UniProtKB/TrEMBL annotation:
Residues 313-325 have a biased composition (Polar residues). This is N-myc downstream regulated 1a. InterPro entries: AB_hydrolase_fold (IPR029058), NDRG (IPR004142). SUPFAM superfamilies: alpha/beta-Hydrolases. Residues 311-383 are annotated as: Disordered. It comes from Oryzias sinensis (Chinese medaka). Belongs to the NDRG family. Coiled coil: none annotated.
Amino acid sequence: MDDIQVVESKPLLVDRELPGLREAVQQLVVKEHDVETPYGRIHCTMKGVPKTERPVILTYHDIGLNHKTCWDSLFNHEDMSEIMQHFAVCHVEAPGQHEGANTFSTGYEYPSMDQLSETLPLVLKHFGLKSVLGMGIGAGAYILARFALNSPSMVEGLVLININPCAEGWMDWAAHKISGWTNAMTDLVITHLFGKEEINHNPDLIARYRNYIIDMNQFNLQLFVKAYESRRDLEIERPVPGSNVRTLKCPSLLVVGDSSPAVDAVVRNPFNRSLYLFLFSVQPGKLTEAFKYFIQGMGYMPSASMTRLARSRTASGSSITSFEGNRSRSHTHEGNRSRSHTNEGNRSRSHTAEARAHADGSADGTATNNMDQAVPKSTEVSC
């Protein structure tokens, strides 16, 4: 048999020949982890490789959803590709809510919403992370807000979608109890995720999300729903000059669909004036656009490409911008529909959106100046 001589050769690909190749490859890295905590194992999915000089985007889903049904359509959207080149993403799932989760034993005490927030520092420690940009919907938004209140040094910013910062009132509790006697868990979750208009006029959307909920481990889901319904008030106060009140210290972005069941709770939020409120019909492109401005306001991605909204402002010279085309009311991020509670799809009618940005004098000067450039302090957008 002839010997084969192996000769070291020049690599076929180098960074200078294909700039961005390393980042593109890193985005394809997906690892699943089970993080041990005093309240059970927390299933996490890390996409991409964390960068030492910037935070990781950490997501938390709503009740009735897991990280895939809640976030895939947003993070797979073409407009997110630029952001994904700069940030790794860690999807965190509440105990027993991930795909293929084993059923908890009878008598298992599910962690409270406060306890779920206490698991997040252990998640950061597990991955060796110093800080995160949190993005949560519904129950997940509440958990991330609680985490930011308790561990402000670990949270650089928050995107809170359809958050209800208040404890469930006794009338809500009674209504859910009565509904629980007559309706399945699936119906209860649907009424949390969607407003009456979507439920009555978008049967395809509702059917799809019913399937998502049915595919969940029903016993485990019931425990998570009960924990959310038993949440405490976040006890956040609006800051007054010279006072020292309990409030979020990080820049935050509030987002709510204009037909969401949470719209009243978000509009009358007790958060401080460093939060930017977007009240509009959301779709992945619009949410990504707002998220990109938000990130730029924090000092990241200063050379990001100009978005449709920025181009329209440049052309019109006005803070009032009109977008052509169809889009959806939304809560999560997928599909096509006429009116939705998720962040996706097309619809025949357009709706006015209001975005109010307020600069917080106590925030970092650079971040505030960048955000002022990225998002006008008072903006009306037709979405």
